[in-house]
Amino acid sequence: MKILLITAEEWNDYVYGNGVLTNWFTGFDAEFAQIYTSPGSPSNKVCNKYFQIDERQMVKSLYSHYKAGHEIEMPTNKQEQDAAKCNAQRKGIYGIFKKLSLWMHTPIVMLQDFIWMTGRYDKAALQRFIDGYKPDVVFCPQLGNPKMWRLEKLVTGMTDVPFVAFTGDDEASYQQVSKSPLFWLRRWYCHNGLKNSVKIFSHYFMHSKEQAQDYTNEYGVPTSTLYKCGDFSNEFVKKSVGSPIRLVYAGRLYCNRWKTLAEIGKALHEINKHGERMVLDIYTQEALTNEQRKALSPENSVYMKGSVNPQQLKEVYRNADIALHVESMDKKNRLATRVSFSTKIIDLMASSCAILAVCWNRHCGYQYLRDNDAAFCVDNYSDILPMLQRIVDNPSLVQNYAQKAYECGRKNHTREKIQKQIRDKFEELIAKRQANE
């Protein structure tokens, strides 16, 4: 089977260490080629054929005879490989847009939309790349947007094989919060753009059952849920519960996740009034504001530990009791992350820790963990203290839920199971296309 990927970012395991492409396709019996729309170099052990289009090329095509897009080679010498590892090419116009979007997001994104919708592709070079590869199926893991939709539409005119999409985000629904007229203008044309673009896909994978049902009902496209693989090859081994019981959070504090962690800290302050029975360690590379530093402080049994690499994080989880999955409870961020299933959830299932999820009850990760009884689940700040008190008073619950999390992962998220799900769908669509020829 020959799979052509169309993605926004390069397939680089150093820049995107938790990337789903390597997770899904390591050991997958197929050939891969990738078309991508960013300036970085690829670096992985699975794919070796690439066609790159980036913003700099598209801008240049607007004012000259230049046409964007060219085939590139996987870095081979040490200098090129080192550059790919640190992604040194993320400079110039891409870097400028990235920085500007931090404080004027929607106008910058709309400007990027304009560039990608009006710039000129080197269609002949792209056609040669596709003809030379001869894919059996095109797979588009994406956050749908005008840039990707135009590119995908262009590729449909160059090959008649099935197209399959995956999204882990709310691409274009109106279930968002913003006071910006520009935000809603862009949301409107993205909503209409998705309605037109979804027709090219024979199947749509996503994390959220609710979103899958919405897409089937509104757009008539067949959908199903698809998650990350995890390592569940060994039997579960119970470990002793620590004293104090150790909670761990590893990740970013954005989207007001830090406020949820601060609420956990308030609960720990109450629990530990007469001695430290439960603590929270936070591993993050982000610098704290004064407000965050005050809320996430040792006074509340919260200890900031800095950043760790993936190998060190495994050791952190090995020495911890409960791993946290948290999201913000404010309306704007609840809606923004509603259909986003953190890939870390699968990692937490395999971590030997119990999982504590503190999220809105419509968050798809929370619903998954609750429905599978694979975590302690809290959907309201007022319920954090009673839940933690229950755990402190019954430490054996930690071992029980650590095993439940692991067994859920082994049942649903082994590499064999997830890869079979992907392969079966691709083979079904390829066979259907061949039957109709």
Could you explain the architecture of this structure?
The protein is an alpha/beta fold. The chain has two domains: 2-229 and 415-435, Glycogen Phosphorylase B (Rossmann fold), CATH 3.40.50.2000; 245-412, 3-Layer(aba) Sandwich (Rossmann fold). It contains 18 helices and 14 strands. The protein has helices spanning 20-25, 55-63, 78-86, 92-100, 105-118, 123-133, 146-156, 181-197, 209-219, 257-271, 290-295, 310-318, 331-336, 344-349, 364-371, 384-393, 396-412, 415-435, and strands spanning 2-7, 31-36, 50-52, 70-72, 137-141, 163-167, 203-206, 223-225, 245-250, 278-283, 302-304, 322-326, 354-358, 376-378. The strands form two sheets. It has an eight-stranded mixed β-sheet with strand order 4-3-2-1-5-6-7-8. It has a six-stranded parallel β-sheet with strand order 11-10-9-12-13-14, sandwiched between helices. The chain is globular. The protein starts with a strand and ends with a helix.
